[in-house]
Structures are given as C-alpha cells and as structure tokens.
Description:
This protein is of the alpha/beta class.
Amino acid sequence: MSACEPNAQRKAGVVIASTRAAAGVYADETGPIILDWLSEHGFDTFPTMVVPDGEPVGAALRALLTQEPAVVITSGGTGLSPDDRTPEMTLPLLEREIPGIMEGIRRAGAAKTPMAMLSRGHAGAAGKTFVINLPGSPKGLMDGLAVLDPVIGHLCEQLEGSHGH
C-alpha cells in the first residue's frame, strides 16, 4: 500500500541542513524535536538526514521525494548567511507553493522575536508530498511546528485527494 493511499501509515522525512552537525562538530538538536512531533501526529519516519548546507540539501530532498512521503521537513539553512541555501534547494522541487503557511510561521515567530522575519523558508507541494523549510534554532522550529499542528492532517488529506472540499 502506498504511503499516499487513505488509511495507510503516512511516511515522513527529515533533512537537517547543518554543515557543522554533518561534520560532527556538534550534535543535531532539531532532528529529535521533529521526529517526536511527527510521531505524535502518527507519521512513520525515515532516518533523519543530516547534511551540509547547500547542494547536499537538494540531493537529500530529491532522494526523499523518490520515496513519496506525505511530509518532508527541513530544519536549518533558511537565514541570510552565504551558505544558507535551503530555500534555493527547495523551491525548484515544489510544484505548488503554500505561502499562507510560511506567512503564519513568520507571524507567530515575530510575536516572540523580530528575527523571525529574516527566515526565508518555503512551504509547498511536490506531487502529493508536503515540503516545508523550518528554522535551525530549536525555538524557531518549535514555533513553526506549533503553526502546523492544527492543519497537518487536513493538509495531507487534501494532497492525497482523500478529503472533499
């Protein structure tokens, strides 16, 4: 049974964009948070992919999308540093953007810190897969996941074509 068929266990992938975590300089802190959130929402997850910023993010995303998960969440690489390129790696893979999600995430984050306005992430659909770029900071990440909480189920149903309008 495909992960996109109704009543099937939905699959999800996680890509952490961090050159230092990929090199073992420090442990990834956001991957476990995302995995817990996905588990709480009933997703079966692929192993987390921790990759350097830049083109390795694009390669990881393309590899995950071949598995047709319901959701792919990235963390990191959404700021303004020269190697923050996650949005540039993500956008070409999206067939349809869902701008309201990122608007909601930036609005929620800006209520806590004006720095949230600097996040350049994208959210959208690549086929039946929802893809979203979230910040690399644990606090920013949790703010983004909180915005997704009430909509993730409906969003997946709509992409699967199993929910009427």
